[in-house]
Amino acid sequence: MTSQASSPNKSVAGASFRFALRGGSLYAALFTATLLVLLPLSTLVHLLGERQGGALKDTYVFVLGTESGLLSFFLLGQTVLFSLILGVVMFRFMLSVRASNVYASMGVKRSALFLSRYFAGLLLLTLSIAVPFLLSGLISGIFLGFNVQLLWSLLFATVSFVSLAAVCYTVFACVACGVGTLIESLVFSLLLLGAPSVFFGGLSLCASVLLYGCPFSLTTYLDSGGQTRLTGGLFGALANYNPLTFAYSGSSAYLAGYKGVDGLPKLAEMFGASEQNWVRPDFTPALIWLLVSAVIALIAVNVYRHRKMEIAGFLGAGKTLNRLAAFICGSGCYMLTFLILQHHTVAAMIVGSLAMLLTIFVILLILTHSAKAVCQQLHLMLLQLVSITAVFLVLISGGFGYAARLPETEAIRYAEISSVAVNTVPVESGNSSVSPYGYDAGCGFTLEPALFGKFTTARDIEQVRSIHSKFIQLGSEDLKSSRYLDTCVLIRYTLKNGQTLLRYYDRADMAALNQCLTITDSDLFREQLQTAFHSGRIAALNEKIGEVVAVNAALDEDSFHPLTLTEQQHAALKTALLADLSRQSVLQRFFPESPAVGALWFRVKDIDGAPNETGSLPMNYNPANAANEPVFYLTADMTDTLAFFEKNDLMGLFEAQPAESIKSISFCPAAIKSSGASYDGTVAFTPDVHAVLIGDTADFEGEETLTFANPVTDQKQITALLPNMHLHYFTQGTGYFCCIEYEDGTQVRKYITEADAPDSVRYYNYN
Amino acid sequence: MIEVNGITKKFGNLTAIQDITFQVESGMIYGLVGYNGAGKTTLLKTMADVYRPDSGSVLVNGQPVRDNPAVKQNLFLVPDDLYFLPYSGMEQMAAFYANFYPGFRMDTFHRLADAFGLETKKRLSGFSKGMQRQAELVLGLSAHPNVLLLDESFDGLDPQKRAIVKNLVTQYVAETDTSVIISSHNLHELSDLCDRIGLINGKTLALDYSVEEMSHSRCKIRAVFAQEMSEEYFNGIPHTRFRQDGKIISFSTAENPDVVTKQLQSLKPLLVEQFPLTLEEIFLEEMEGTDYDFSGFFTE
After folding, report:
1. Contact A153, A62 (CB under 8 A)
2. Among candidates B11, B48, B98 on the partner chain, residue whose Cβ is nearest the Cβ of A105
3. Helix (H, G, I), strand (E, B), or coil: what is residue A497?
């Protein structure tokens, strides 16, 4: 063999880099393979399948991956996993006593050794991510054409995930430089990467408990345009500040582009297109995290240069990281304990403190194997406890004014609020309502909290603020007492400076909830009433095709009287009704002093124009029906409407059956029912009570649970009771539902207030 | 030349070695001895820049070792705990070291591997402990370092291989003027191989002599008397490790043996003899090892 001397000028660092590249290539190949499946392969399969269905380009602008929300999640997991794996491959040498001896004694500067291996790993990660994305982009371009949305999205997604990989990899490298064992490197790295999630998520949940009005416990809600909005709490709001979420939250909307009905490209959602137009992505978070990685890398170089190689193989050698890890775990334990015991705040904090101290103690003991050494750090443990407790105290005291914040009217562009009950939603809000009374899309009847209305006038904004201030005042009360009810009230301000302020109240008393009803005394509500009556969207209100049924308060089979009106009379009735409804006060609408005279039921005529048969059709208050066939309760304050009927000699239609035809009246307390199954446990706030006929009680779901007792059969007593029984009343959880049974077996539900109920009703034991 | 100046190394609160100073000239083989845990490995690792000293410095030809590629590319440490790349054979390790040691020569590598009868393509994990040690030595010598640090490198070698290694090292030093430091417990081998011996005891360098100086630094005196003589009779005579066997006494002395013999005459010995001490005896003397009375350990 010929003599071959190595070149004395050979770059040792370059050799180290190449050696590290070879060492990590297998793992990089594995990573690439998984991404090839997730990205280009799945894209190809998807597009081939979609192409067979035709009109591919009518649906997509580009596709980098399918099921973008889910895909982002898998990409996140794979990227974190393989970044850590490559970190292990590149830097495990410093965690082994034997390997340390060799590497540390070799003729290469420590910084050069570290950086050569660091950059080798970074290059492998970058290629592993970029190549599959590039292939996916190529495939998309071939099928759907190359466009600016594809190119920007491709670049953005690649940069985002490369940035994520860089962060995870660099954190591992830095941690490895400061500890002695591989297990510490992995665990501490995961703790550091996960720490923002622990803190943001934990504080978010704790804030939602401690800070009255904090919306962090909500995940989504509907805005007044019917769009689903994410709250995400601190976790969502600070997604760009969290190394584990910035790539996921940013990129998931850009993994596919859809063609909207308006022809504009749309962003992606979890499982399909969103309504948001495609816009050029914001690279700032990804670039900032790349910069952060660079800073951490510089720190790592410095740590490695000063590393004591003798710590290799020894647990607990990195004191700073020990304390940091213990603090993160201890804080998480504190927050978790608090959340479990949240109903007893003081006890929760005490037990949480003990849990935190114990956690820190145990972790440090495991790492250092010396109780004495751990006890010597007691002052640090207490300092850590004080810091977390201070945060909790800030939250308890109102979060530096967060709970009490009420923006000035002048600063508000518009306000939105959720509904606590039927009749408080302005018509034609974004939530598909077409009923003049409104169709409740608020918390009480839907699973998803929803805002409605854009209250823009100063008066309306003041109305919302007035409601809001009522809730703010409750913040100092003990809301856990039985005096307060579960509820779901959302208030959102969009300020003139572009910021939004969202508040969510999940407990309130009746006074606050009643205050919410005052939103009907607003310019927007009146404006929407006008629109509902005149826009023509509600067919039943159209004088050409609609008819009106006058219903008297008895609500039996003989109570329904379809009116024969000319178009002019129909229009005149509408005008009168609109004027009365617009003029109604909150009390008149929800808490009328006297029972309704009757009701007016607007509906569409039969196809040939003839009136519909009434028979025993239910007049119920199922919002779905009310949306198309609005029902208005005629009360004494509606003078214009009553005048119309008087003028047209129709008042007799509202005369109810004599009391002799009533067989009995039974009662059921209208107590607040908490967490009724019908309302998914979100609201215990009793909705309006309206009469329903037997046979369709299922339409008024709340009534399924009503059990009537204490029947009154004496006719004198019945006659005395009837004038106080309301057809329409906002119960507030007091008073009694009444079941009126007629001789013919017909049953009708009404309501009597607590004050109007006789002693025999009030003092009966209904249990 | 290697200069070790005032090296102190601590591990936490434990001082492993303290204020150690010595020099190893080019072309010299220096033996480092000491009891288990004395600090030999610590010292060698500090010299190789694996450990950073708490105080002091290590210079090679006047240049500091610390984070100095130019120096370290010509310094090779053969540690006691051997490290090989996972799943590697000697060929892979040779390629690995060739990246970091510009002086590494593949022809030397193959010749040495042949000399030791080692299969270079076989996985090192399949080698015996002794073979692994031979492999590491081969790799170290193939790097052609100017400074070679061998930590317990004779351990696990059979007598034939020991002889080969000794010859190799001697030849290498003769041909390349390399400085070699060997740590070992085998004082017989060191006395044959080394030019100079350093003894670490009590965290410091207790002795630092050439082999010849060390041999002459002490001697053993044996004397026969007409009656039994206890140690008190010898109080005026500088001595250590006094032994009495009836009328025969023996002791060691660091003083001039002729002077001591003359002093003994006053006690009228029947016979006085002088013997040079072996390195082992010097080692044991210096360590002041306690003689344990093990009788009854296993029966009582």
Report:
1. yes
2. B48
3. coil
Predicted pLDDT at A36: 94
Q: Does B74 touch chain A (CB under 8 A)?
A: yes
Of A218 and A700, which is predicted with more confidence? A218
Helices A523-534 and A567-583: crossing angle, nearest 10°? 170
Question: A58-93, pLDDT tens digit by residue?
Answer: 889 999 987 667 788 889 999 999 999 999 999 999
* Distance (Å) of CA A711 to CA A738, A753, A764: 10, 17, 11
Angle, helix A378-396 to helix A345-368, in steps of 10 degrees = 150
* Across A11-15, average pLDDT: 88
Gap between the terminal Cα atoms of chain A? 104
Of the residues A21, A106, A368, the best mutation for testing chain B's interface (the one with the most B CB atoms within 10 Å of its CB) is A106
Interface of B with A in 41-70 (CB under 8 A): 45, 48-52, 67, 69-70
Asked if B4 and B26 count as a contact pair (C-beta separation under 8 A), the reply is no
**Which of the two residues, B121 and A230, has the higher pLDDT score?**
B121
For residue A721, the number of C-alpha atoms closer than 13 Å in the C-beta half-sphere is: 30
Give CA–CA dist A640/B213, Å, rounded: 130
Token pair of A571 as six digits: 């229009």
Domains of chain B: 2-210 (3.40.50.300), 219-276 (3.30.70)
Q: Is the distance from CB of B125 to CB of B153 less than 8 angstroms?
A: no
- Please give the interface size between A and B, counted as residue pairs whose CB atoms are below 8 Å apart: 94
In a mutagenesis test of the B interface, which of A101, A115, A314 is the best target, namely the one with the most B β-carbons within 10 Å?
A101
pLDDT at res. A210: 87
The pLDDT value given to residue A608 = 55
Cα–Cα distance between B127 and B114 in angstroms, integer?
Answer: 15
For range A186-214, the mean pLDDT: 91
Cα-based distances in Å from A313 to A106, A317, A318, B15, B240: 20, 9, 12, 20, 44
Give the separation between CA A315 and CA A188, rounded to whole angstroms: 12
Tokens of A179: 């500890």
> B92 CB near a chain A CB, below 8 Å?
no
pLDDT class for A700, splitting at 50, 70, 90? Answer: very low
Distance CA B281, CA B238 (A): 17
Say whether A101 and B79 touch across the interface (CB within 8 A): yes
Residues of chain B contacting A310 with CB distance shorter than 8 Å: 11, 51
Is A131 a residue whose pLDDT tops 80? yes
Return d(Cα A217, Cα A215) in angstroms, integer.
6
Cβ atoms A128, A86 nearer than 8 A = no
CB atoms within 10 A of CB A228: 14
DSSP β-bridge partners for residue A669: A736
Q: What is d(CA B233, CA A759) in angstroms, rounded to the nearest whole number?
A: 125
Please enumerate in sequence order all residues whose Cβ is within 8 A of that of B152, keeping only pairs 6 or more positions apart, or say none.
B41, B80, B183, B184, B185
Q: Is the pLDDT of residue A285 over 90?
A: yes
Structure tokens at A723: 């004038």
In angstroms, the CA B139 to CA A602 distance is 99
Q: Which helix (H) or strand (E) holds B206?
A: strand B204-210
Contact A712, A759 (CB under 8 A): no
A600 within 8 A of A548, measured Cβ to Cβ: yes
Is the pLDDT at A135 greater than 90? The verdict is: yes
Would you say A712 and A718 are in contact if contact means Cβ atoms under 8 Å apart? yes
A555-595 residue pLDDT tens: 777 778 889 889 899 999 999 999 998 898 988 887 888 88
Q: Say how far apart CA A307 and CA B52 lie, in whole Å.
A: 9
The answer to whether residues B94 and B104 touch, using CB atoms and an 8 Å cutoff, is yes
pLDDT tens-digit readout, A337-362: 999 998 888 899 999 999 999 999 99
